[in-house]
Amino acid sequence: MALTITDDCTACDACRPVCPNEAIATGDPSYTIDPSRCTECVGAEDEPQCQLVCPADCIIPDPKHPESRDQLLQKYQALRG
Ligand code: SF4
Ligand code: SF4
Predict the structure, then answer these.
(1) Which ligand is nearest to the CA of 19?
(2) Domain ranges for the chain
(3) pTM check: above 0.90
(4) Ligand 1 atom nearest 39 alpha carbon
């Protein structure tokens, strides 16, 4: 499933540059993740890169977007064209 950013975001900008899918947008106060672009980093990395770098631990799975690993990989491949 796509990840989402909670209200604990401090807009530090650590996550945005590490996303392989350019899924993270700046925001004030909270950054946001485009669920149509987030693949949990499936296809590109072993684990979600944004969660690794977030100092506020405010990036969590979004149950509104349940997806299997295969679906995430298909999304990644579609994004790559
Ligand atoms: Fe981007 Fe990966 Fe974070 Fe999704 S999990 S927003 S693809 S860095
Ligand atoms: Fe917000 Fe975490 Fe991204 Fe920083 S790394 S902008 S605290 S979601």
Answers:
(1) 1
(2) 3-80
(3) yes
(4) 7
Nearest alpha carbon, ligand 1 atom 2: 41
Calculate the alpha carbon distances from 12 to 18, 33, 51 in Å: 13, 15, 13
For 12, residues 6+ apart whose C-beta sits below 8 A from its C-beta are: 55, 56
Residues with beta carbon inside 6 Å of ligand 1?
3, 18-21, 23-24, 33, 38-41, 48-50
Q: What pLDDT, in 10s, does the model give residues 37-60?
A: 999 999 999 999 999 999 999 999
Measuring from atom 3 of ligand 1, which residue has the nearest CA?
50
Q: What is the assigned CATH class of domain 3-80?
A: alpha beta
CA 61 from chain centre, in angstroms, equals 9
Type of residue numbered 16? R
Q: Quick one: which H or E segment has residue 65?
A: none
